[in-house]
Design goal:
Shape: globular
Helix content: 40-55%
Strand content: 15-25%
Largest sheet: 8 strands, mixed
Distance between the termini: 29 Å
Number of helices: 15
CATH class of the largest domain: Alpha Beta
CATH topology of the largest domain: UDP-N-acetylmuramoyl-L-alanine:D-glutamate ligase
Number of domains: 2
């Protein structure tokens, strides 16, 4: 990309980031509806598989997209937040938007953004702009199917102007309580809003309170339901080098001898939901797959190539450094279980940077039995909790001797790696591991520091959840 394009890309990023950030919710679909109407309703140009939940949304969306693309469909994937580069959020045929295409897509819809801004009291937000861009890009491609992840919640999420023929709800727990509610029932009620009349609802295993709400919504909407553990699910799971070996029962058949290069039972559950979603989509009028099972060879090949950056992702060896985007107690519990199962570290040094509005004590409680030493730090977001305040909470849980403070993430990584090197020198190579976690932003910042390979347009790491 030329220097001129690069300069314009920086300008556009700053224009977008200057808008109301995505974590600042103004519960209304009025502005995004006005925008997509001006754009000619691009979100109705293709069928949509819509995903919500508290944890596992992005991984499940990526898995669903990979399976659909392996079946020969042209795919559009919208996920959030991004790890390293804003263009990661909008993916066509498995490729994030290039910087040049990102600039073109923004310039194409900019006149319509100006119209909506000028005719509404509240300007379009950061997230609303990106949703409009994604819908437009996918229509222009054009894609055969859109895999659409909510930003937060469901009912009032800007993606909910689209009507998913398949709605996937990954496990629900408490997160974003300020916006979605303080109970699982309240959060499930909001997320259930993506289940539309006549859709197929694919439900991951849920707490009973969430399941009750979701099933009520299914009945109310006249949707069809498929539940993990009943209509589909994981039949068997064994550890394998670099991942796990699985057998999955789908809605149309069983899929055996699947090698998934991701860690943890939660990722096996995510894959089961993705397979069920693709089977459900194949049976809709918008597709032509009918009621037959998916081709096992195609499924096997697609699963073997699946990735989920920032989800127990190994970015360095000797010592092993993993990145994980867990940012709530439920997500951290799943990550700690997976890490303990898949790795044999005698000591784990964790680096944590979290947002101010998170359940910090709950996150640290899940880490304490597994983590030997903790380095508290900050990330590039203005919402990052001050390391001194984070250290105070951490010390009350871990004890003073196990907690260190490094205000800058690069210094925290240097300290943690040095601690791990000391353990390896004393106990043998591979004895210690380093985990960077607590936030998508923390994982993304660390990924840039350790790999310097952003995968799409831009490198700005502003306000993300």
């Amino acid at each position: 990309m030329s220097a001129d394009w690069q300069g314009r890309l920086r300008e556009i990023e700053q224009e977008i980031f200057a808008r109301r950030p995505e974590h600042s919710i103004n519960p209304s679909l009025e502005r995004i509806t006005a925008l997509v109407t001006l754009l000619g309703d691009p979100h109705r140009a293709y069928p949509v598989i819509h995903l919500t939940g508290t944890n596992g949304k992005t991984s499940t969306a990526r898995m669903t997209e990979a399976l659909l693309r392996a079946r020969g469909l042209r795919t559009g994937l919208f996920t959030s937040p991004h790890l390293s580069a804003i263009g990661e959020r909008i993916v066509v045929d498995g490729e994030p938007l290039s910087g040049e295409r990102f600039v073109e897509a923004y310039e194409e819809i900019k006149p319509y953004l100006d119209v909506v801004d000028s005719t509404h009291e509240v300007r379009l937000s950061f997230f609303e702009v990106l949703v409009g861009m994604a819908f437009s890009v996918f229509a222009d491609a054009p894609v055969d199917v859109c895999i659409l992840e909510v930003g937060m919640g469901g009912t009032w999420d800007n993606t909910n102007v689209a009507d998913g023929v398949v709605a996937v709800v990954t496990p629900i727990s408490i997160d974003h309580a300020r916006y979605l509610g303080n109970t699982v029932q309240e959060i499930a009620t909001d997320k259930a809003g993506i289940i539309k009349p006549g859709a197929v609802a694919i439900l991951a295993q849920q707490p009973p309170a969430a399941a009750e709400v979701l099933l009520h919504r299914v009945a109310e909407a006249g949707a069809t339901v498929a539940r993990e553990g009943l209509e589909f699910g994981v039949l068997s799971r064994e550890l394998a080098v670099g991942g796990q070996q699985l057998s999955i029962r789908g809605l149309r058949g069983d899929y055996t001898d699947l090698y998934l290069p991701l860690f943890g039972a939660h990722q096996a559950g995510n894959l089961a939901c993705a397979i069920a979603a693709v089977e459900a989509f194949a049976a809709t009028p918008e597709s032509d797959g009918g009621d037959q099972a998916l081709d096992p060879a195609i499924v096997r090949q697609a699963v073997a190539g699946m990735t989920s950056p920032g989800r127990l992702e190994i970015v360095r060896r000797s010592p092993v450094v993993l990145l994980d985007a867990a940012h709530n107690p439920g997500g951290m519990a799943a990550s700690m279980t997976a890490l303990t199962e898949a790795f044999t570290f005698t000591e784990l040094i964790a680096i944590i940077g979290v947002a101010q509005d998170k359940d910090v004590a709950g996150i640290l409680d899940e880490m304490e039995p597994v983590v030997t030493k903790l380095v508290v730090t900050s990330n590039s977001s203005t919402r990052s909790l001050d390391p001194a305040a984070l250290a105070e909470v951490a010390t009350s849980i871990f004890g003073q001797d196990r907690v260190s403070v490094a205000p800058r993430l690069d210094d925290a990584i240097e300290l943690a790696v040095a601690l791990a090197d000391d353990v390896d020198a004393a106990d043998g190579p591979g004895s210690a591991g380093v985990l960077v976690t607590g936030s998508v932003i923390t994982a993304g910042d660390a990924r840039l520091l350790l790999t310097a390979t952003p995968s799409a347009a831009g490198q700005t790491r502003e306000e993300r959840s």
